[in-house]
Fold this sequence. Notes:
six-stranded parallel beta sheet, 20% helix
Amino acid sequence: MARSPAGAWAVLGALLWGCGLTLHGGMLYPRESASRERKELDGLWSFRADFSDNRHQGFEQQWYQSPLRESGPTLDMPVPSSFNDVGQDGQLRSFVGWVWYEREATLPQRWTQDLSTRVVLRIGSAHYYAIVWVNGVHVAEHKGGHLPFEVDISKLVQSGPLSSCRITIAINNTLTPYTLPPGTILYKTDTSKYPKGYFVQNTNFDFFNYAGLHRPVLLYTTPTIYIDDITITTNLDQNTGLVNYQIFIQGSEHFQLEVSLLDKEGKVVAQGLGCQGQLQVPSAHLWWPYLMHEHPAYLYLLEVRLTAQTAAGSMSDFYTLPVGIRTVAVTESQFLINGKPFYFHGVNKHEDADIRGRGFDWPLLVKDFNLLHWLGANSFRTSHYPYAEEVLQLCDRYGIVVIDESPGVGIMLEQSYSNVSLQHHLEVMGELVRRDKNHPAVVMWSVANEPTSFLKPAAYYFKTLIAHTKALDPSRPVTFVTNSNYEVDLGDPPLMFSEEYQKGLLEQYHLVLDQKRKEYVVGELIWNFADFMTDQSPLRVIGNKKGIFTRQRQPKSAAFLLRQRYWKLANETRYHRSTVKSQCMGKNPFIC
């Protein structure tokens, strides 16, 4: 590789930081309604990696000022996907630095001519640091992958008006001690082995650092007076469900709000007025986890209607939000959902697959949920970063409980506990809670995975981080994953990590778990759901093979062992029926 972009990127980032117009309000999922439209920009984008020595040629030549094809050759790059495994270029697979994406988007005429329409560009995930231009104008920046960001581009597309707009996104995947996850750039100075300026990206996490536009990119519209954010919390008063709502409006201080809660049959069960209030639902249907109730994952629909009077006449905005009524509590020895003990039996996962890397893919997602159902799993952790919003929507729909984890993995160096790192980590938790706060499936926040929490600065770092997250959302517990050292495996399993070893290891774990769950253990999430890609090394030949399924989602011996155990646990802990069937019929496989 050529000389590191890290230093130049830091200077550029400092110069550009704060110049973007990134929205700092709500982050509601863009849903179509009578007042809102959306236009998907998935598909083939023009793409180029900046292989110049300083990785800076794109900025020096201002590639964003004209179509990317005019400044040199481009590749077709599918979005969403990671760029690493799509082509046949080994340099691109391990590339570190700036890559450039571009897409021309045709705009409906009403979007460009109706000044009461607000046009927003939303990027679901750009890993890691992203800068965005529209028609050559710098509009936004975002630091960190895995979470969405968006920007109002109305003035740009309505100053003409234009029939199309050119969207350019530059992404840098360099990880430093201050990013999340952190990493370092290691220069290879032995010129007898490496070319001048050669460097590698070092990380302290065991998965491949895929990069690119990993999730959908889209345009959507709202009126200029619009519903910006909704916060829902729920509680129970005997059989009455309590839905507390808070709604934030942008564009005017003079408006009327009507709120309705509808059941699955579309019947209005509660109504309210104004930005804040409580809806009371007699004989409420509760949101229960899969296998904990014969009717799991019951979702109501919250309909919010905004009306406002303007000089041009009446303006309306409509937004609908699925709502699950449920409570979460923790005692000294139990995890409670709706006041009943809940035992986690599930998996840790990765967003990872052949060719697409970490790119969002509906067929793969549905396959994974079908495997969770087959396995008898009721939960998973989003190791080691927030997953796509669509994943959590399916969890809400199917009753799969989620431990929602930040990208705080590989925090090993003392530098990574600096105030700069802490400030970024606080911002990431704010973005994560803002995005996922209304999902009933999310029952816990995880701020980090296996950090060096024994280092002296870690105490202040994590106390501050956990307190901040609890202040953002007092309704859920906050945790982080730690690792402990065990001396030897007393089960005397085979010496290599084979299928036999994995099965034998699990059998030994299950003996211990069956004892400890009588005392204080509240769940077990297997590492890992499926094999996943890592950097190549003698210990990692074509990835990590600790999955109970292969990377292509074929079951190993351990999957059958775990399936037997999880269905046994389901039969023991479910209180509405004495026996749970391992295969369920009907449109929704998660409803038995």
